[in-house]
From TrEMBL:
Keywords: Apoplast, Cell wall, Cell wall biogenesis/degradation, Disulfide bond, Glycosidase, Hydrolase, Secreted, Signal, Transferase
Post-translational modification: Contains at least one intrachain disulfide bond essential for its enzymatic activity.
Family (UniProt): Belongs to the glycosyl hydrolase 16 family.
This protein's GO CC annotations: apoplast
Pfam families, per database record: Glyco_hydro_16, XET_C
UniProt KW Hydrolase keyword: yes
Function: Catalyzes xyloglucan endohydrolysis (XEH) and/or endotransglycosylation (XET). Cleaves and religates xyloglucan polymers, an essential constituent of the primary cell wall, and thereby participates in cell wall construction of growing tissues.
EC number: 2.4.1.207
Source taxon at top rank: Eukaryota
Active site residues per record: E116 (nucleophile), E120 (proton donor)
Domain GH16: 22-231
GO MF annotations, alphabetized: hydrolase activity, hydrolyzing O-glycosyl compounds; xyloglucan:xyloglucosyl transferase activity
Protein name from the UniProt record: Xyloglucan endotransglucosylase/hydrolase
């Protein structure tokens, strides 16, 4: 698969640049292309020594986990809103306990009031598929997780797939390839829990044996190491701010007021509804054991709610569960 490409994504205005998602070959509006970055142009290694490897002139990054360490990299800049994307291929074969993460966070700057937007990929035993978890923290709301989990409708170890986060003052959208899978609106109900401070982009691989697979029942087995996650088609496009003054405005040349709300097309919303109906396996909004009173942004839908148990798990998932509970009180 050729990874040195530019591509088109969700419709929004970043200054004069209009980005649009291309779905099923149909172009919704005029398209400008986003160029991918080489590693040295936008990122820096944060840990892992030789477990981070650059290929194709820095256009592809391999992160590996072995008995000594995992690995990770981060964006060189802080961003206040933007579009962040990477094409990722996950480790194949036995990967229980392995966690691959692609996320935005400012926990290193705001220790008690940090924001975070997560893609977390949770490894599994041989013959069982990887799971995907998305999460949102705002203003230090780490005790109030907004996790959702999904199974994949493709093999994420077989080829590269694009995972993207759109973050504007008005909304957050998680995408897989060109399909939105989750949307969070900056509503009165969300309040200060909507991420609003500059964040750094991170990509990591690490040992999550205590919780990642069946609530910690299956741990990383280093006989199968190294576990290698591949990253390519790296995109950083957004409002950069002064790292010495994170509360500063966007760098000159970027008009943050031009960030517009993305209205999903009928096709996009249909695609998102299909993913959520057929592949979402856990939602915090249905977890009555954890939240006896649903969080304010959770809307009650009798048709959907009846598909989930009081632990937030979709009926039918329990036959896959064994062992201790994970950090979201639901093991898979």
């Amino acid at each position: 698969m050729e990874m040195g490409f530019s591509f088109s994504f969700p419709c929004l205005f970043f200054a004069s640049l209009l980005l649009c998602i291309q779905l099923s070959g149909a172009i919704d509006a005029p398209i400008k292309s986003l160029q991918t970055l080489s590693f040295d142009d936008g990122y820096t290694q944060i840990f892992g020594d030789s477990n981070l490897m650059l290929l194709r002139d820095g256009k592809t990054v391999h992160l590996s986990l072995d008995e000594k360490t995992g690995a990770g990299f981060a964006s060189q800049d802080l961003y206040l809103h933007g579009f962040f994307s990477a094409s990722i291929k996950l480790p194949a074969d036995y990967a229980a306990g392995v966690v691959v993460a692609f996320y935005l966070s400012n926990g290193d700057v705001y220790h008690k009031t940090h924001d975070e937007l997560d893609f977390e990929f949770l490894g599994n035993v041989r013959g069982r598929e990887w799971r995907l978890q998305t999460n949102v923290y705002g203003n230090g709301s780490t005790r109030v997780g907004r996790e959702e989990r999904y199974d994949f409708w493709f093999d994420p170890t077989d080829d590269f797939h694009q995972y993207s986060i759109l973050w504007t003052p008005h909304q957050i959208i998680f995408y897989i390839d060109s399909t939105p899978i989750r949307e969070i609106r900056n509503s009165k109900a969300m309040g200060s829990a909507f991420p609003s401070k500059p964040m750094t982009l991170y990509a990591t691989i690490w040992d999550g044996s205590t919780w990642a697979t069946l609530g910690g029942r299956y741990k990383v087995n280093y006989r199968y190491a190294p576990f290698v996650a591949e990253f390519a088609a790296l995109v950083l496009h957004g409002c950069t701010v002064d790292p010495l003054n994170p509360l500063s405005s966007c760098d000159e040349g970027f008009d943050s007021s031009s960030l517009a709300t993305t209205e999903l097309s009928v096709e996009q919303r249909s695609g998102m509804d299909s993913v959520r109906a057929n592949h979402m396996t856990y939602s915090y909004c249905h977890d009555r054991k954890r939240y006896t009173v649903p969080l304010p942004e959770c809307e009650f839908d009798p048709g959907t709610s009846r598909l989930y148990g009081d632990d937030g798990l979709k009926f039918g998932e329990r036959k896959h569960r064994r062992g201790k509970r994970s950090r979201i009180d639901s093991s898979f």
